[in-house]
């Protein structure tokens, strides 16, 4: 119903641009993770351990300078939003979705707790995937498992493979549906 009420500009320009933006952000994050996997295989310094004696402003956290830092921020926000959307669309947590002007206090507390856990895991998540090396003053590099090559490598490979499979499945399904709709009506 929202699509029918949307203006032609939204339907023909806004939605496709939003989908291309999401596709680009997903592709960029997968490329960064694949690059990080190669770094892990070639150099031990790519492990997401803490940076010793690195004070903010004196060490560049991106090899591409300001553009790279802005890209990291955009990707971290994208990962945050996709984590929240993925959390609330899982069958186990769909009941936790708030309802407009009819949400009980226990559901509000459950939502706050869930968002707190997701936001606390985001720095470790983005650091383990190699999207950023910034510690966010939490010294998340001190976790012992972040020094284990196999865990970090498998985590990165799992993210890259599963995200690519999800992306291919989503895009090819949409293309298949459009082709069936376009050629199915004539045949």
UniProtKB/TrEMBL annotation:
Pfam families: LMBR1. It comes from the Eukaryota. Its main location: membrane. One of its GO terms (cellular component) is plasma membrane. It is a multi-pass membrane protein. GO terms for biological process: receptor-mediated endocytosis; Wnt signaling pathway. The keyword Plastid does not apply. One of its GO terms (molecular function) is transmembrane signaling receptor activity. Keywords: Cell membrane, Endocytosis, Endoplasmic reticulum, Membrane, Receptor, Transmembrane, Transmembrane helix, Wnt signaling pathway. The chain crosses the membrane at residues 12-38, 58-88, 108-125, 145-168. InterPro entries: LIMR (IPR008075), LMBR1-like_membr_prot (IPR006876). It is found in: Cell membrane; Endoplasmic reticulum membrane. Belongs to the LIMR family. This is LMBRL protein. It comes from Chauna torquata (Southern screamer).
